[in-house]
Amino acid sequence: MKDILDNIYFNNTVQDYAIALGIILGGIALLRLFRKTLLNRLKAWAAKTDTRFDDYVVLGVERFGLPILNFLIIYWGIHYLTLSAKVSSIVSKATTVVIVYFVIRIILSAIRKLLEAYVLKQENGETKLKQITGIMVVINVAVWVLGLVFLFDNFGYNVTAIITGLGIGGIAIALAAQNILGDLFNYFVIFFDRPFEVGDFIVVDDKRGTVEYIGIKTTRIKSISGEQIIISNSNLTSSRLHNFRRMEQRRAIFNIGVVYGTPLEKLKKIPDMITQIIINEPLTTPDRVHFATYGDFSLNFEVVFFVQSSDYKQYMDIVQDVNFKIYEIFEKERIEFAYPTQTIHLKKSE
Fold first, then answer.
1. Given 3.50.50.60, 3.20.20.150, 3.40.720.10, 3.30.70.100, which CATH number is that of 250-333?
2. Who has greater pLDDT, 234 or 184?
3. What are phi and psi of 201, to 5 degrees?
């Protein structure tokens, strides 16, 4: 048996190979045992706590810690052996690749968690999480490119030439796709500056509707007539945009005309009557009611009040109720609304 263990193959004895294999298999078995016992208990404990930080830590150990430890065990097992220069170089390069891979994965996961935490702090954060996908696509590309450049530098390639080539190619791509890059940049502006969000009712030029989806290049809006409007992000950020969802109140203003010949005492009562109607209406604040102008066929009153709601339907329901009550009280007080009339006076010739 000892003769078999002492046999040498590729500068190592059979015993050396057996020890290296034992290190690898024993280490992996211990990690499996750790995962089934201690890690599962840590996951159950973290799920019961109020904070999410411990959940991220346990998840990080499971997703990155265990694979890294598995690789380190294999690395230690291999390095127990006496390796040739060529094999040692291959192992060293493979180790560099694995390290860069896991470092990039950890960086990207950390960035995603930070963005998720930033979004979740906002109003309706859960519904906005899907917006992170577009940003993460760009961040993934940038981080992986930097990781590959770092990897090539460690392998002895001329990174300066690569970066120069990427720079020239990047300029050419930027000139060819400047509109796309402009929309992409404005997507970041919309995400961080938040001029509008999914679910907001906005007006852009003569287009109005509810934001359904914010993409990397375009934003989709469902118009009030039902069709979908697709507008580029660059056009949205460069336009004068009205966001009605963020209104704390809406201003109602309209005119009421009564007929000429209405008695003066009734004219004087109209402002107080309308003001009292507005005061009695829920979610309304009166501003002013005035006998404003003499019209061609009516005496015109201007009515202004505020509705303490951003919901357009509720605003219109309140305006409608105010109009009904004005009509009711005018009918009760025998005050006539004016409508276009023309009086012709004929003079009899002698």
1. 3.30.70.100
2. 234
3. -95, 115
